[in-house]
Amino acid sequence: MATAVGLSLAVLVPSAIAQNQTVTNKDYTQVGREILAELVASKPVHEQGSTKAAQLLASRLRAAGFAEQDLHLLAPADHPHKGNLVVRLRGKTSDNATLFIGHLDVVEAKREDWNFDPFVLTEKDGWLYGRGVIDMLGQDSAMATSLIRLKQEGHVPQRDIIVAFTADEEAGGEANGVDWLLRNKPELVKAGLVINPDAGEAAIKNGKKLYLTMQTSEKMFLSFELEVTDKGGHSSRPTKDNPIYRLSKALARLSDHAFPLHLTETVKLYFKGRAALEKGQVKQDMLAVAAAQADLSAARRLSQEVETNIQMRTTCTVTEINGGHAENALPQRVKATMQCRVVPGETQAQTEALLKKVVNDPSVKFSVRTPARPSPESPPSAMIRQTVESVTHSMWPEIVVLPSMTAGASDSIYTRAAGLPTYGIDAMFDDLDDGRAHGRDERIHKEVFAQEIEFIYRLMKKLDQSNFSK
User: Fold this and answer.
1) Percent of the chain at pLDDT above 70?
2) Are 336 and 321 in contact (CB under 8 A)?
3) Could you give all domains of the chain from N- to C-terminal order, each with its CATH number?
4) Strand 202-205 vs strand 430-431: parallel, antiparallel, or unpaired?
């Protein structure tokens, strides 16, 4: 078991909360703004780490009345700058606690690439700009603000509410906070249910809120290296064994191949709900795919669009290629990286076997570059969905809640692998046509941020009232 280091909580926070003054309900949006500004300014990129951000949150929560024994600020001994904070709001029982997880690290951003300083929270024309405001310091701020509000209201939940603010989701590796806590401090994050706002999606298109997802699963990340070698020689004496040609032909065969249709229970529920937002042939096709016996013609039509195709099957694509060593020499070696996103229930071995069958060339050697980390699907629980719908409709009666399987990866892979039912739920509505997470001038509208704070607060309370353990 890896060792851990304790981290100091001594960070000054110039706020009304830090001065132990009562905050009224209408001021919690401002509290959230202050916390978000502090987190953005802490610059929790990979190189610098998340310890400063974790310390800032710990001081906020400590000043709001959380006891020392309920604030656990720690990091791996060999990565002291990769700080994690685990906070517990004590309930009537510790059994079947609800665990919220949120990563503190953000993707690097350069000042010369932005119209604003990426590490200063800036408001302009109703938008809040700053690295991490949408992924996911905004959600972290909402969770911290909700804990402060519940504490100051004297709320005692039926079951403990735990929030783990963690390191290294973006970079992964041995310092990933959720993975590290589960392996080294499992008693701190023992729970009956996990909520991960980072894995949820809330969509806006043309200024209209469309849907909010309840993520129950995500595709498994896996990558291979494909390599062809030859003895080489002078370019004036070409041969048919040129490795670049051989690998190119193999990749062309792969580009024309579609993996078999694989519709999980979650995906069928997604299409059934999404159909309500569509019309015409698309609506009919989504309903036909969601039927007990999926219509293959409908599936073929939906496969023409990337958004719907990736929901229905495993996908693999080439992301890197490298070969040759001189302009006037025949190549001796050429390599390509193929990244796959595998539907839950399929395996690494099955995926590799199918790729080799399609390539149909023994000269193409396969090796695993990034092994798969299996993560089972969490059951698309009707009770959890009803709870999320109840909270969502209390704020936006017209919004559809869709069960979803995401193609991207999140920290949910660790909690699901540990046997913890995990759901990605969030209400930080983002524009489908202008998503800026990881990009230049990352931003979130100030009204959306205020609504996120209220949504997380209501979700924490509503989940506590639900018998999800039954």
Assistant:
1) 93
2) yes
3) 4-200+382-392+401-465 (3.40.630.10), 220-370 (3.30.70.360)
4) parallel
- CA-to-CA distance for 18 and 296, rounded, in angstroms? 60
Residue 327: strand, helix, or coil: coil
pLDDT value of residue 453: 97
| Tens of pLDDT, residues 179-238 | 999 999 999 999 999 999 999 999 998 889 999 999 999 999 999 999 999 999 999 999
- Enter the DSSP assignment of 198: G
Handedness of CA 57, 169, 347, 217 (dihedral sign): positive
Residue type, 146: S
CA distances from 157 to 22, 130, 197, 275 (A): 21, 34, 20, 37
Which tokens sit at 220?
A: 């498994």
Write out the DSSP string of 323-371.
E-S-TTEE-SEEEEEEEEEE-BTB-HHHHHHHHHHHH--TTSEEEEEE-
Alpha helix locations (H) across 185-242? none
Going 423 to 424 to 428 to 429, the CA torsion angle's sign is negative
Name residue, tokens 């989504």.
286
Q: What token pair was written down for 374?
A: 């299996």
Q: What is the pTM of this model?
A: 0.89
pLDDT band at 465 (very low <50, low <70, confident <90, very high): confident
Determine the Cα angle at 269 with ends 265 and 274, to 5°: 145
Asked if 421 and 197 touch (Cβ cutoff 8 Å), the reply is no
Q: How many helices (H) and strands (E) does the chain have?
A: 13, 20
| Dist CA 30 CA 447 (whole Å) | 12
242, amino acid identity: N
Q: 243-279: per-residue pLDDT in tens?
A: 999 999 999 999 999 999 999 999 999 999 999 999 9
| Residue 134, both tokens | 């949408």
Name all contacts of 321-325 with Cβ < 8 Å and 24+ positions apart.
321/247, 323/243, 323/244, 323/247, 324/244
Q: Measure the CA–CA gap between 410 and 199, rounded to whole angstroms.
A: 6
Counting Cβ atoms within 10 Å, is residue 245 exposed (0-12), middle (13-18) or buried (19+)? middle
